[in-house]
Amino acid sequence: MVMTSLTEELKKLAKQGWYWRPITLWEVEGKLVNTPDGSFLVRESSEDHYLLSVRSLQYLCRFVIGQYTWIDLILTLPLSNKMKDYLQEKHY
Question: Which helix (H) or strand (E) holds 28?
Fold first, then answer.
């Protein structure tokens, strides 16, 4: 059995197109915005774990609405209460 160091494994992981070191939620959304449904990336968290982000139409809608609407005004949008709740949730 060949043993490799953690540093070597992290270097290999960093070369994967789906893996990102710590990046913000806004950076994630920017990277996934023009990708097909089901696209994903894994990023490091500041709390010693990893986060999986998946692009979906719902995700894209939240991103676009978030870009053009103040969070305080979400309740005034002509949307269902369920969607308003979703838009107001804090997403990591």
Answer: helix 25-32
42 pLDDT above the threshold of 60 = yes
- Structure tokens given for 88: 């107001």
| Residues 6 or more apart in contact with residue 57 via CB below 8 angstroms | 37
Cα separation, 33 vs 36, whole angstroms: 8
Tell whether pTM > 0.70: no
Q: What are 76's two structure tokens?
A: 């005034």
Burial class (CB in 10 A: 0-12, 13-18, 19+), 83: middle
Burial class from Cβ neighbours inside 10 Å (0-12, 13-18, 19+) for residue 19 reads middle
Interatomic CA distance for residues 73 and 2, integer angstroms: 57
Helix axes 25-32, 57-68, angle to 10 degrees: 120
